[in-house]
Amino acid sequence: MAYPVPRHFHRVEEIIRRSRFITSVAHTPTRDAAKAFIERIRAEFTDANHNCMAFVAGPPASTAQVGMSDDGEPRGTAGRPMLNTLAHSGVGEITAVVTRYFGGIKLGTGGLVRAYSGSVRQALADLPVREKIIPTTVPVIIGYACITPVRRLATAFDAEIIEETYGADVSLTFELPVEKAEDFRAALIDLTHGELVIGTS
C-alpha cells in the first residue's frame, strides 16, 4: 500500500506564554536518517533550552522503529505527546524536533503536553507530502511471440522490467506498485490465454 511521507524539510514557529517553540519536520525513512536529522537540528539550536524529538521511521502508525526524547523537560511531557501526534497523523517516515527557548513562564505538566503536541499538529497541518509507492515484483516466463504485447501491457500498470533472460523462453521480472500486482497478473493470464508461468515475488 502507498502512504504519504514529507515532501521536504518543513518548519513552523509559535510563541506560547513567552516561550518560543520551533518545530522542524523532515522525511526520514530509516532510524539512522532520523538520528542524523535530530543531530542537525540540535547543532543548529545549541543555545536552546530543549530540543525534544519524536520519529516514526516506517509506515504510518508502525511501532517497529520509533523514538522519542523529552530532552530535559519533565518526563512524558514532550517526546511521548509528540510521538502520539505523529503516530495518529497518517504520515510515515517522519521526524519532528521541537526546539524550545524558555520565556520565563512555567507551563506546568499539562501545558507542556499541549504545547509540544500542538506544535507538531501545527507543523502537520500544512506539511507538504508526497505518496510513497511500495513496490513488489512479478516474475514471468513467456514465449517470444508474447514479448511485445506483454511489454505494452506492463506500461499500463506502471510495471518496469528489472531483469530479463532469453533462452528457450523469455524470463522477465517486473517491478510495480503492490496494489496493482494482482490485476497485472490477471491481465497477463488473459493476454496470453494462460500460456505463461507466473512466479512468486
Automatic annotation (TrEMBL):
GO biological process: regulation of translational initiation
UPF0029 domain sequence ranges: 140-194
All copies of domain Impact N-terminal, residue ranges: 17-124
Example of a GO cellular component annotation carried by this entry: cytoplasm
InterPro entries: EFG_III/V (IPR035647), Impact (IPR023582), Impact_N (IPR001498), Impact_N_sf (IPR036956), Impact_YigZ-like (IPR015796), Ribosomal_Su5_D2-typ_SF (IPR020568), UPF0029_Impact_C (IPR015269), UPF0029_Impact_CS (IPR020569)
Family, similarity comment: Belongs to the IMPACT family.
Name the record gives this protein: YigZ family protein
Organism: Desulfonema ishimotonii
